[in-house]
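Data deposition worksheet. Section B asks for the primary sequence of the deposited chain exactly as it was used as input, without tags or linkers unless they were present during the calculation. Section C holds the resulting structure in token form. Section D is free text for depositor observations; keep each observation to a single sentence. Incomplete worksheets are returned to the depositor.
Section A, Depositor: J.P.
Section B:
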Amino acid sequence: MAEKLDVAEVLGGLPAWSEHPGDRPAIARTVKFKDFNAAFGFMTRVALYADKVDHHPEWFNVYNRVEIVLTTHDAGGVTERDAGMARFIDEAAAAMGVKP
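Section C:
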């Protein structure tokens, strides 16, 4: 099982992310694109990576907006798997012209 990390420490290295409100430790980010096609392309890129590393985000999409929540359910909180996924998401968004 992955080791649970301190959410505040994880967020220190992820300026575009915030603590997810609610009853469980998680991190969150909303990413806005120019249109639906760009948002869907981003989601496809992240989905392919998520499948490869077997760690899948919780997300919600409406038109150009993608809301993302990361947590490791079996660890009961945020782990290095979430931090790594967040870094990949940040890189994928930046590659598509999204600023943090």
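Section D:
The beta strands are 18-19, 27-32, 58-62, 65-70.
The two ends are 31 Å apart (CA to CA).
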